[in-house]
Design brief:
Elements: H1 2-24, H2 37-45, H3 61-76, H4 82-90, H5 92-100, H6 119-140, E1 142-146, E2 160-165, E3 218-222, E4 228-230, H7 238-245, H8 247-250, E5 256-261, E6 264-269, E7 273-275, E8 283-290, E9 295-299, E10 302-305, E11 308-309, E12 317-323, H9 330-340, E13 347-348, H10 350-353, E14 363-369, H11 370-377, E15 387-388, H12 395-398, E16 418-422, E17 429-431, H13 437-447, E18 452-455, E19 458-461, E20 464-465, E21 468-470, E22 475-479, H14 489-492, E23 495-496, E24 500-512, E25 516-517, E26 524-525
């Protein structure tokens, strides 16, 4: 609240002062009271290009532009020293009106021939301008992302560098605009220091785009469960850790868990709990398999939407249980990679996990596409009989893992047998009961911000009894193409539209962790 009071106070004082500045500069005083036009005149008085006005409508950047223009008030009125610049930057509520209503006359911007700037000032101006332009570009048009995990193999590969289009679904305006440039949520060279401030926030808003997420799109979004993370285990769901270990242990500085660091298993403390706003949660990329209003079901690993079996992406993978037919050597691995594109990351075996070489007959779980399965079925020197991994219903709860959404004992679903479930749609209503509430509890309580309570068989929303609920936004169901090695909606549920970042459109660079640059894949479209 206080930041907004200070911001509005600044704008009020600025609007009450500009007319006097305009008058001193020989411009009509009334122009200082006309929103938008007064910015154009102000830019002209300061000797700045007219197109800078575009930067004044970009959240985050516009705050920086007002600071720059405050400094230019000092310049055009002849106060050209660092003390005045610093006061204009940090105390504009006092300094702007004090300078404008002083007896100082307008002398105009510094002529180019009289600008004597040292190397530091020249580089500073260039870097500042580059930061502004790059920030506008990556916020409102395209942003670069990388694929760190195999959840989308072989459609999108580990080591792919993507351009994600913000224009496809409409650029989302920054909700935490005050942030360190070119960072997402953490300061460089740190593991948990936030790169943003939360004392100044903006509500969720989105500019018009070319469309909405469609089935089959490769979508980048903020991880819905990423509102809370454990500092030293940020790649794990905080909520699953709570279910497994209990909230009390996660807050205990003495409690430790094993973690993989540089290929070694070490025991680590929790490192504290971090809370993040929507636009600073971890970025995920998955395939949109169902949109708002759809009904979805997974049967024996196959996805059915509105009763119709969906076509699996061409390069999608399932996991298969088998055993090694021959002893595993570096030559074996090289041959598998060259002939079948089966890498170390595609296989899971106990010896591989411990940095050892598998032996003949050792069990292994390998992720394969349909084309790879076909090639191996014609006789292969690597694996014995392939058996597709299938997790029956009830398995999770028999093992007391509760990993599968909605993480409730009333639903015995698994990653291969899931649903049916209806995807919430903006403006649509459902009948609420204590039986189906687990499916939509987080939507109502967390994503749409209502106070939800259950007393016996009665559901209370914002303190009032409720038997139905109307959704405020659209939701989507996201799944990885690597169906058995993907943490996706089957584990944490719906993706709200306000979490959607953009659509993956282009692979601009790619490097295989084992073999190096994939030259043929560079500058290819995302399918």
């Amino acid at each position: 609240m206080i930041p907004y009071i200070l911001l509005y106070a600044y704008f009020a004082l600025l609007m009450a002062s500009l007319w006097k500045l305009f008058q001193k500069a020989g411009k009509p005083a009334w122009a200082g009271l006309v929103p938008g036009y007064n910015i154009l005149v102000w830019l002209k008085i300061a000797g700045k290009p007219w197109w800078w006005i575009v930067l004044f409508i970009v959240p985050g950047v516009n705050l920086l532009m007002f600071i720059i223009m405050n400094v230019n008030i000092s310049i055009v009125l002849g106060r050209r020293n660092y003390k005045e610049y610093v006061l204009m930057t940090f105390l504009p509520w006092w300094k702007v009106p004090e300078t404008i209503f002083s007896k100082d006359a307008y002398i105009g911007p510094i002529p180019p021939e009289k600008r004597k700037r040292n190397l530091f000032e020249q580089w500073g101006d260039a870097i500042l301008f580059a930061v502004i332009v790059a920030t506008v570009f990556r916020t409102y048009t395209f942003e670069a992302f990388t694929i760190p995990t195999p959840s989308m193999e072989k459609s999108l590969l580990v080591g792919d560098y993507l351009f994600v289009s913000k224009l496809s679904y409409g650029p989302r305006l920054p909700m935490t605009p005050l942030t360190f440039p070119f960072t997402h949520h953490t300061m460089p060279f740190t593991t948990s220091t936030p790169s943003f401030v939360e004392w100044f926030k903006q509500p969720y808003r989105r500019l018009p785009g070319f469309g909405e997420p469609q089935r089959g799109d490769a979508v980048v979004f903020n991880f819905p469960e990423g509102d809370t993370v454990v500092a030293n285990f940020q790649n794990q769901s905080y909520y699953q850790l709570v279910r497994d270990k209990g909230r009390k242990k996660l807050n205990d500085p003495r409690f430790r868990l094993p973690n993989q660091v540089d290929g070694q298993t070490v025991s680590m403390p929790m490192g504290g709990i971090l809370v993040r706003p929507i636009d600073k949660r971890e970025n995920y990329i998955k395939r949109c398999v169902a949109v708002a209003g759809d009904s979805l079901e997974v049967r024996d690993g196959d996805v059915y939407v509105n009763g119709v079996k969906e076509m699996l992406p061409e390069q999608a993978q399932y996991s298969y249980n088998t055993t090694f037919k021959v002893g595993y050597t570096e030559r074996t691995q090289k041959t598998m990679k060259e002939k079948l594109d089966i890498g170390i990351g595609d296989m899971s075996a106990g010896s591989l996990f411990n940095g050892m070489r598998p032996v003949t007959g050792e069990p292994v779980n390998v992720a394969l596409s349909a084309a790879q399965v076909k090639a191996l079925s014609n006789g292969n020197p690597y694996f014995n009989t392939l058996e597709r991994q299938v997790t029956p219903k009830g398995t999770e709860y028999a093992q007391q893992k509760r990993r599968i959404f909605p993480n409730d004992e009333r639903f015995d679903w698994s990653e291969d047998f899931f649903g049916p479930i209806w995807i919430p749609k903006q403006g649509a209503s459902i009948q609420l009961t204590v039986d189906n509430l687990p499916l939509y509890r987080r939507v109502i309580d967390v994503y749409e911000g209502h106070d939800l309570q259950v007393k016996g068989d009665q559901i209370l929303i914002d303190g009032k009894p409720a038997t139905s609920y109307t959704f405020a936004q659209d939701y989507y169901w996201m799944m990885g193409d690597n169906r058995h090695r993907s943490q996706d909606s089957r584990f944490w549920g719906f993706v709200p539209f306000d979490h959607i970042v953009g659509k993956a459109v282009l692979v601009w660079f790619t490097k295989d962790p084992e073999t190096g640059i994939r030259w043929k894949r560079m500058f290819s479209g995302v399918k």
